[in-house]
Each structure stands twice: as structure tokens, then as C-alpha cells.
Write a structure and sequence with these properties.
By secondary structure, this protein is mainly alpha-helical. The chain has a domain at 14-50 and 129-260. It is built from 8 helices and 2 strands. Strand 1 (14-18) and strand 2 form a beta hairpin. The protein is globular. The protein starts with 13 loop residues before the first strand and ends in a 9-residue tail after the last helix.
């Protein structure tokens, strides 16, 4: 008896198209994710036990946009297709052709936060811990956009909710984009939100950032078992995907940050 399949809801990746101008769901996910994340940071930063000036996050928004775009693109170039882009460097800035890496975008945001904290003379983790809670908002929207685009789908499966993706051939597959949206997006956000609002974690500098790294790393590592590996990379060392290899140092760094987080009182106004 064939498995019961759920029809893949074919949605046009282009939301609005007027002549040569087009707005894609993927681009909209980035824009809306950054704006909602910024508003959430403003709200969380105003709450006890540690209130921060609104201007800090207003000013950092532009830094975050640049960091996400540059870091995400360069991460994809370096982690996933270095040989291709070395031979075709003119394609590196062609963001409209696709190709972004979350790990690269995260590194970009961390570097931007570090430079911004030095410039504004604010301890790094007071900002990072707030931004870390908002991070899953962008992840949730980004994974939903991946689903709409029919990309980054899962491996062949006979689970009742398997879907046939237009770009994935005739075999039903795991909707791994939705797994990631649920785990590294919705669930991780709820966990970090509760920790940030109902414990003294924001006074344990680096704890929330560590929990984010652990939560994302574990979620990504687990879903990679049912996500189709990148066709140009396949399995590395015969068993692991690039996503899993990049997630391991995130998990280890997150554990280190969480263990070293010490209660402290702010020394600035």
C-alpha cells in the first residue's frame, strides 16, 4: 500500500512582480525577520533585570543588516562552494542567484556586535544575549521561505507527511525545512524567551548566548539526519554533512559559554 502523502503546496517564490522588479518570499523573510527581531530586542532590552538604552539597538540594526548579508554570503562561498567561486569571483555578490549560509551570517553578526560594543563601550554579552533571543525569529521565517521555494528538502521517506518536492524528483521526502522551522525557530525562541524573561539569565553574561548556540547546534545537527545533503558536497568523511560539521563547534562553544557564565551586576548606567 503506498504511503499517504501530503500535497506540497506550490507557492510562487515571487510574491510581487512588476516588470523587472520582483519581491521574493526569501528576501521578505530576511527583511521581516530583521524588523521583528529589532522590535523584539527593543522590548526585551527595556525589561528588568537589565534595562538597556533603545538607541543601542536602533543604531545596531544597520550593522546587523550588513553583517547578515555579508556574513551569510561569504559563509556560503567559503563553506559550501569555495572552488566554484574561486573560479568565478564575479558571482560572489550575486545574492539574487541564491546561496546564503546561516553559520556565516551568525559569525558576521557576532563580529559586528563585538565591534559595535567596543565603539559604544558596552559589554559585549549584554548586547549579544538580547540579540540571541531574537535570532530564532529570523530562522523561523527563513526556513518557511526555504519551504516555499521548495529547496533544502529532506531525504526520501515513507512517513505519512512526506511530500514530493518539485525540485526533488518523484520520491516523497521529509519536509525538513518545517522541522527546522519548528526546532531552531519556534521552539528555540520560546525556550530563550522564557529563560530571558523569567530567570536572572541576563545577569549571567553569556549564558543566553551559550544556550542559543547549543539549541541551534543540536537542532541543526539532528535535522541533518533527514535533510538531503548538498549535491555538490554529499557526505563528508563518509557519514557527516557540512551542516553537522559546522554545528559541532557551535555546540562546544555554547557549552563553554554557559558553564563560564557568572552572575554579575552592571557597572554602567
Amino acid at each position: 500500500m503506498p504511503p499517504l502523502l501530503i500535497d506540497y503546496p506550490s507557492i510562487d517564490p515571487i510574491l510581487i512582480e512588476i516588470g523587472p522588479f520582483a519581491i521574493r518570499w526569501y528576501a521578505l523573510a530576511y527583511i521581516v525577520g530583521l524588523l521583528i527581531g529589532w522590535r523584539y530586542c527593543l522590548w526585551l532590552a527595556s525589561k528588568p533585570p537589565l534595562a538597556l538604552a533603545r538607541e543601542l539597538f536602533d543604531d545596531f540594526l544597520i550593522w546587523a543588516i550588513i553583517a547578515v548579508l555579508l556574513g551569510g554570503r561569504l559563509g556560503y562561498v567559503l563553506f559550501y562552494k569555495p572552488a566554484h567561486f574561486l573560479a568565478n569571483p564575479v558571482e560572489i555578490p550575486m545574492l539574487w542567484q541564491g546561496g546564503m549560509s546561516f553559520h556565516g551570517g551568525m559569525i558576521g553578526v557576532i563580529l559586528a556586535l563585538w565591534l559595535f560594543s567596543i565603539r559604544r563601550r558596552v559589554p559585549f554579552f549584554t548586547l549579544m544575549d538580547v540579540v540571541a533571543v531574537a535570532g530564532p525569529i529570523g530562522l523561523l521565517l527563513g526556513r518557511l521561505a526555504n519551504f516555499i521555494n521548495g529547496e533544502l528538502y529532506g531525504r526520501p521517506s515513507d512517513v505519512p507527511w512526506a511530500m514530493v518536492f518539485p525540485q526533488g524528483g518523484p520520491e516523497p521526502r521529509h519536509p525538513s525545512q518545517l522541522y527546522e522551522a519548528a526546532l531552531e525557530g519556534l521552539l528555540l525562541f520560546l525556550v530563550l524567551h522564557v529563560v530571558a524573561r523569567h530567570t536572572n539569565a541576563r545577569l549571567r553574561y553569556g549564558l543566553i548566548s551559550g544556550l542559543f548556540l547549543i539549541g541551534y547546534g543540536l537542532s541543526r545537527f539532528a535535522v541533518e539526519f533527514v535533510r538531503e545533503p548538498d549535491s555538490h558536497l554529499g557526505y563528508l568523511f563518509g557519514f557527516a554533512t557540512m551542516g553537522q560539521l559546522l554545528s559541532v563547534p557551535m555546540i562546544l562553544l555554547g557549552i563553554w559559554l554557559a558553564l563560564r557564565a557568572k552572575p554579575a551586576q552592571p557597572s554602567w548606567s
